[in-house]
């Protein structure tokens, strides 16, 4: 074991601003020599890493891939769009996505704990963030399965990587189901539904919307005999706003997403939508 003390760790942290584990590893590698450990930290770009921990990472990218009926999507954040559009950050995103696919991780926490070259992926992400000079975070992960899963990535700016990503799974993998699934994925990116179906809307949320509809109608002086129809009509309007299958289809607002999928012989199974920082 390298010869160093707690005071040595504290001193090196104060000099470099590097994190506790990074300092200990550097001292181990330098056999307790503070000057050599300082050089290790500088070479690896870990200097100042701990000082970045409190910064907000609100820029970044979304990346996704689909293979054998399994779609995987990740969001990874940086502090600035300057870093977000850099080749090194985009390469980092691709690596994180590859690990997400190979590890089978179901959430960001599991993904960060997954193995990458013999160490947790979190260490690699932290090191790359240090080299980039910004706080970098793997924010979230989605994994969907279905007979067919479509992925859609949208750039909100030509000089940035994808800022919006969608995965949409259906139970049919032939045409016209695939085309309909892709069109719905694009619709999800634009219209940002909250729920797949009415059944997914929590009962207390429905109750609140019904109460608000009734209170609003009474405040407007609507006749009592029409009250129930007005309440149900406004509740239907709420569903059209937040439920994917009830939403007017973006490409043809005379029909609904549910009707488009039914005509294509496909049943919606699940969806995920990420927007960077949202």
TrEMBL record:
Keywords: Cytoplasm, Elongation factor, Protein biosynthesis. SUPFAM superfamilies: Elongation factor Ts (EF-Ts), dimerisation domain, UBA-like. Residues 80-83 are annotated as: Involved in Mg(2+) ion dislocation from EF-Tu. One of its GO terms (molecular function) is translation elongation factor activity. InterPro entries: EF-Ts_dimer_sf (IPR036402), Transl_elong_EFTs/EF1B (IPR001816), Transl_elong_EFTs/EF1B_dimer (IPR014039), Transl_elong_Ts_CS (IPR018101), UBA-like_sf (IPR009060). The keyword Cytoplasm applies. It holds the Pfam family EF_TS. Residues 71-277 form the Translation elongation factor EFTs/EF1B dimerisation domain. It is found in: Cytoplasm. The keyword Protein biosynthesis applies. It comes from the Bacteria. Associates with the EF-Tu.GDP complex and induces the exchange of GDP to GTP. It remains bound to the aminoacyl-tRNA.EF-Tu.GTP complex up to the GTP hydrolysis stage on the ribosome. NCBIfam families: tsf (TIGR00116). Belongs to the EF-Ts family. This is Elongation factor Ts. It comes from Yaniella flava.
């Amino acid at each position: 074991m390298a010869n160093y003390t707690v005071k040595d760790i504290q001193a090196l942290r104060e000099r470099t601003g590097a994190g506790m584990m990074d300092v200990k590893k550097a001292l181990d590698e330098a056999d307790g020599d503070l000057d050599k450990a300082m050089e290790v930290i500088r070479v690896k770009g870990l200097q100042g890493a701990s000082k970045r921990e409190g910064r907000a990472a609100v820029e970044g990218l979304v990346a996704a891939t689909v293979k054998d009926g399994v779609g995987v999507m990740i969001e990874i954040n940086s502090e600035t769009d300057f870093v977000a559009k850099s080749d090194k950050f985009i390469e980092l995103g691709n690596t994180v996505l590859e690990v997400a696919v190979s590890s089978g991780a179901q959430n960001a926490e599991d993904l960060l704990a997954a193995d990458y070259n013999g160490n947790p992926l979190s260490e690699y992400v932290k090191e790359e963030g240090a080299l980039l000079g910004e706080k970098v975070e793997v924010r979230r992960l989605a994994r969907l399965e279905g007979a067919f899963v479509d992925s859609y990535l949208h750039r909100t700016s030509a000089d940035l990587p994808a800022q919006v990503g969608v995965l949409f799974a259906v139970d049919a993998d032939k045409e016209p189901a695939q085309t309909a699934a892709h069109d719905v994925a694009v619709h999800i990116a634009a219209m940002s539904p909250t729920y797949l179906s009415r059944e997914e809307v929590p009962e207390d949320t429905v109750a609140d919307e019904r109460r608000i509809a009734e209170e609003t109608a009474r405040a407007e002086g609507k006749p009592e005999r029409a009250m129930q129809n007005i309440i149900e009509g406004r509740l239907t309007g709420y569903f059209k706003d937040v439920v994917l299958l009830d939403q007017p289809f973006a490409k043809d607002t005379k029909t609904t997403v549910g009707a488009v999928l039914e005509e294509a012989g496909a049943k919606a199974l699940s969806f995920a939508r990420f927007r960077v920082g949202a």
